[in-house]
Each structure stands twice: as structure tokens, then as C-alpha cells.
Amino acid sequence: MSVPGEGLAKGLAVTLKTMTRRSHTQQYPDVAPELPPRSRGVIGLLAENCTVCMLCARECPDWCIYIDSHKEEVVVPGAARPRQRNVLDRFDIDFSLCMYCGICVEVCPFDALYWSPEFEYAEYDIKDLLHDKDHLGEWMATVPPPPAHDRRGEPAKEETAAARKAAGPAATPRAAGPGPAARSASTPGVRPPRPARPGPPAASAAPPVDSAAPPAASTEPSAQPAEPPEASGATE
Ligand code: SF4
Ligand code: SF4
């Protein structure tokens, strides 16, 4: 049997309980959200690093990277001919097509593209989502620094090579390894003798099964019994 007003009291109790509980709602845009460091917000371009290799534009599954360039001659003192280099004229990314897969950032061999966690670039006109070279360059200011190395991970190849170089040629594994040392100890140009191979069994002592073995006869021509061709023809 229900008491009149019981439901109202229960509802007010829930309301009071909720009012005193800490809210978990993120108060965006008053409070900026704390995004993970590897968030994919927008792509920044470091134009100085770009060599116009076109890898990013070719690999982009949405074909939303547009690159134009021209060649320029660079006179190198002492060189027989002037060299040519690509000059970047246009580098646009259409973020209305981009699906933030990150392939372009991954494939760039010259570290010219970076992810920035910045995401507040919504536009009223979809055409304004085409970011040109200068606009992409401005995003570089929002790119976070790279994370620290994992202390338990392997050292970077560049660090290992630099340490080896600083230690001198004796520290290189090739110089310290057994291969070259052993090679230098041996007489150059002289091959080590081959291990002796077991010869074919004697014809008289060999059973019929061994005498018919073809590999022994073919690999040891000196031990092969001389069989005249007419003898074989006579048997046929
Ligand atoms: S993130 Fe993916 S879709 Fe966007 S520009 Fe790069 S490769 Fe193209
Ligand atoms: S892959 Fe890198 S270097 Fe090559 S065109 Fe793209 S941004 Fe430039």
C-alpha cells in the first residue's frame, strides 16, 4: 500500500542527492578539454622540410592534398653543372574531405607534416576548410613537442651510431667482430682446403645397390670407372 506523496519524496531525494554530487560534464568551451598528446586535430606543415616528393599526395586515400611546385637552378661553387631543386608553390589540404587517417603524416620521409591537437577550426563555408600552405604552417605553433623516449626501450639508431662514432673505429662491431679478424689472420688469396670427401666404394667390395648410385659416380670423375661408349651401345 502506497503512502500519498511517497513518490514526490523519493523524487526530491534523488534531486538533492544529484545536486550535491560533483558534475562530470566538461564545461566546453568555457574550459578547454584535456586531450591526449597524440590527438589528431589538424595537420601542420613545416614547409622548409618539404621536398615536393609527392608521397603524401599519392598515398592520401581521399585525394585531398594538392601540391604544385617548380624547379629552380642552384649554382653550387665548384660543381660542373648547376643543380636543380623543387620549390613548393602550393600545398593545400581540404579538411572537408580529410578523414584524419594520418597516412600523410606517416609516409612523409622528411618530417614535414605533424599532427596538432587543435580542433577549433570549424567554418560556416565549407570552402574555407581548404587550408593553404601558410595556414597549415600556422598550425605548427600548436604542435606539441615529441614525447620523451621510453627509458626501457631501445635507443634510437641515430644515438647508437653517434656514440659508436665518438668511441672510435675500434668500437664498431665490424672491426671488433670475429669475421674480419679471422679473415685478416688468414693468407689473402688462399682458400682453406676442402674437407676430404669419402671416395666411392671399391667395385669388387661394393654390393650391387651401391654400384648403381649415380651421385657418387658423377661427383668424382677421377674415381669413375672408364666405360667405353661402344660397350653401352653393345648392350642396347
Ligand atoms: S589524414 Fe589521411 S585523409 Fe587526411 S590528408 Fe592525410 S592522408 Fe589524406
Ligand atoms: S611527403 Fe612530405 S616531403 Fe613529400 S611532398 Fe608530402 S609533405 Fe612534402
TrEMBL record:
EC number(s) recorded for this UniProt protein: 7.1.1.-
Biased composition annotated in UniProt, kind: Basic and acidic residues: 148-162
4Fe-4S ferredoxin-type domain ranges (all copies): 41-70, 89-118
GO terms assigned for molecular function: 4 iron, 4 sulfur cluster binding; iron ion binding; NADH dehydrogenase (quinone) (non-electrogenic) activity; quinone binding
GO cellular component, one term: plasma membrane
Keyword match Magnesium: no
Binding site for [4Fe-4S] cluster 2: 60, 98, 101, 104
Biased composition, class Pro residues, residue ranges: 190-201
Residue ranges with Low complexity bias: 163-189, 202-236
UniProt KW keywords: 4Fe-4S, Cell membrane, Iron, Iron-sulfur, Membrane, Metal-binding, NAD, Quinone, Repeat, Translocase, Ubiquinone
Pfam families, alphabetized: Fer4 (PF00037)
Membrane topology: Peripheral membrane protein
HAMAP family recorded: NDH1_NuoI
Name of protein: NADH-quinone oxidoreductase subunit I
Species in which this protein is naturally found: Micromonospora polyrhachis
